[in-house]
From TrEMBL:
Name of this chain's protein: Acireductone dioxygenase
Pathway connected to this protein: Amino-acid biosynthesis; L-methionine biosynthesis via salvage pathway; L-methionine from S-methyl-5-thio-alpha-D-ribose 1-phosphate: step 5/6
Cofactor dependency: Fe(2+); Ni(2+)
UniProt main location, coarse: cytoplasm
The UniProt record lists the keyword Metal-binding: yes
Cofactor binding notes: Binds either 1 Fe or Ni cation per monomer. Iron-binding promotes an acireductone dioxygenase reaction producing 2-keto-4-methylthiobutyrate, while nickel-binding promotes an acireductone dioxygenase reaction producing 3-(methylsulfanyl)propanoate.
Tree of life domain: Eukaryota
Its job: Catalyzes 2 different reactions between oxygen and the acireductone 1,2-dihydroxy-3-keto-5-methylthiopentene (DHK-MTPene) depending upon the metal bound in the active site. Fe-containing acireductone dioxygenase (Fe-ARD) produces formate and 2-keto-4-methylthiobutyrate (KMTB), the alpha-ketoacid precursor of methionine in the methionine recycle pathway. Ni-containing acireductone dioxygenase (Ni-ARD) produces methylthiopropionate, carbon monoxide and formate, and does not lie on the methionine recycle pathway.
Record's catalysed reaction(s): 1,2-dihydroxy-5-(methylsulfanyl)pent-1-en-3-one + O2 = 4-methylsulfanyl-2-oxobutanoate + formate + 2 H(+); 1,2-dihydroxy-5-(methylsulfanyl)pent-1-en-3-one + O2 = 3-(methylsulfanyl)propanoate + CO + formate + 2 H(+)
Organism: Lodderomyces beijingensis
Taxonomic lineage from the root: Eukaryota, Fungi, Dikarya, Ascomycota, Saccharomycotina
């Protein structure tokens, strides 16, 4: 079952895969206010219909776990730390969980972290320009997800600590300004 809650902000580089649940839940309405959309999808047809409606032309499937890195713990840890670094993309990001589980953290209007705990059949749409990060869960340490792309896969992640704010970032920030 999907869960949305405020992050407790007690994360370190050693424990960031733990739940970090502050105990304060977040509603889907609160997420919608920052452009984050959640859907529960159980069939290929529903996924295809969503992709068509939002004009997504490409997709791939990613498997994240230690085995996917040939059990190279350093390579695995490096990738995990990269995904957990706060970043945004110039394109909307859709992730559909096929197996396993993971946490997506998104910033709200007040720059607080909201955590989405996703598992099988959960789909999340993150708007272009939103600051976010991702991690596997400490229990399973495994996810299989479909990544949908509007056009060619655009992998560029712009880290918050780079200070770079693209047009997509600026227009997103303006769209949620109170
Ligand atoms: C991202 O951009 O943060 C990701 O794609 C995370 C991995 S997808 C399960
Ligand atoms: Ni991302």
């Amino acid at each position: 079952m999907v869960q949305f809650y405020y992050h407790d902000n007690k994360d370190t580089l050693e424990n960031f895969t733990e739940p970090h649940d502050s105990g304060k839940p977040v509603t889907q309405e609160e997420l919608a206010a920052i452009g984050v959309i959640y859907k529960y999808i159980t069939t290929q047809q529903e996924l295809d219909a969503l992709a068509k409606e939002r004009e997504y032309k490409n997709r791939d499937v990613v498997n994240l776990n230690l085995a996917a890195f040939n059990n190279d713990l350093d390579a695995y840890n490096a990738k995990m730390q990269q995904f957990y670094k706060e970043h945004y993309h110039d394109d909307e990001e859709i992730r559909y969980i096929v197996d396993g589980e993971g946490y997506f953290d998104v910033r709200n209007k007040g720059d607080e972290w909201i955590r989405a705990r996703l598992e099988k059949n959960d789909l999340l749409i993150l708007p272009a320009g939103i600051y976010h990060r991702f991690t596997l869960t400490d229990g399973l340490k495994q996810v299989k997800a479909v990544r949908l792309f509007k056009d060619e896969p655009k992998w560029e992640a712009i880290n918050r600590d780079s200070g770079k704010e693209s047009d997509a970032r600026l227009s997103y920030a303006q769209s949620i300004a109170v």
